[in-house]
Amino acid sequence: xxxxxxxxxxxxxxxxxxxxxxxxxxxSWKGWSSAYHKRLAEVYRFWVAPGQRVLELGCxxxxxxxxxxxxxxxxxxFSPEMIQRARVLHPDITFVEADCHNLQEIEGPFDAIILxxxxxxxxxxxxxxxxxxxxxxxxxxxxxxxxxxxxxxPLLIVxxxxxxxxxxxxxxxxxxxxxxxxxxxxxxxxxxxxFTLSNFIMARPRPRNVPKAPLVSVIVAARNExxxxxxxxxxxxxxxxxxxxVFVEGHSQDDTYAVIEKEIARHPERKSQLHRQTGKGKGDxxxxxxxxAKGDILMILDADMTVPPEDLPRFYEALISGKGEFIxxxxxxxxxEEEAMRFxxxxxxxxxxxxxxxxxxxxxxxxxxxxxxxRKSDYELIAANRTYFGDFDPFGDYDLIFGAAKLGLKxxxxxxxxxxxxxxxxxxxxxxxGLLLLRMVAFAARKIKFT
Length: 451
Description:
This protein is of the alpha/beta class. The protein has two domains: 3-205, Rossmann fold (3-Layer(aba) Sandwich); 215-449, Spore Coat Polysaccharide Biosynthesis Protein SpsA, Chain A (Alpha-Beta Complex). Helices cover 39% and strands 20% of the residues. β2 (72-77), α4 (80-89) and β3 (94-97) form a beta-alpha-beta unit.
């Protein structure tokens, strides 16, 4: 046996004995760490929606994994004492006694893989990350947290006086160190802000398979837009395997509904649907359209044609290529046509874009551009977890952006050329809606930034 294997065996044996002893001690001992682990569960619950397939490496007694309410939960730990207690505490979850350097007996794929306070305690970080590839699908979230180096001395003091679980020597990897390992096996890695004691990192695997061409649904919420319907049919391009146009007519005072019916009859070659909105607001109309859509990819096209339908294939390519998971249109980059956006509306949009970029930790250059594209599977997760934010957004834009950010989706801004209306008038009320948007920003700060 060579020295490397001998060193690895000695390292692992010492740590296994250490964590076995901690497991026995935790049966009767409680310290400050319980508050820390409670906070960890709150943070991970923010990112991981209930009902997903979740794997946790270094699961300990399984409390964090159980808190996420997975549809299939698998916990891995090399401490037999930890695994024994986990099986008793959480009998509905599968726990496997195994070394995270060898995960051959684990069967994937998983929607989320968690390494909580683990990367600082393992022998070969690169080997562990390479093991994860087999357990991922193209959309798997890989999430980890590790202690910040600035807490190294304070934690040592707290451990010495018996208020925290003792630890063996740590790797104390920085975000940059971990990123080097992730970048070799994973793509699109971005660090999140410092959360108290820990640095949090989220990554996704590099797409490996070219997906088959999907069905695309273009949702058009139409209120008093009769003069634009024929152009929507004429100018909306075919994308993917096929493209359907889903119209939701919302209490129009003109003959928008009848015109849509007429155009559907005139274009039997186009897949299309028409629904009457029963609720109020564009957000409600878009949600109805999403619910009725048959496509794998969902797009929003404003019926006022201020964003040209001819731009939609660029959104499709950005999503299908893996460059982003939520593609957000931006009207504030290219020069606009005269009268396309009033001056105070322009200033308001600039303000909200800066506010949301700060809130979400991702660039959001335009929060209210109507053109947004995402996968239906992601939208269904957003809808299933809408109660976290509540149904308070009449426009639907913030509802989608908040939901995408909470899921950890990579938001990509895509510039569009914003045109002036050629028919009808805007349904936006500048001042009253502006005050509503301010309240929504404050609400988002509480639910996202300071959660």
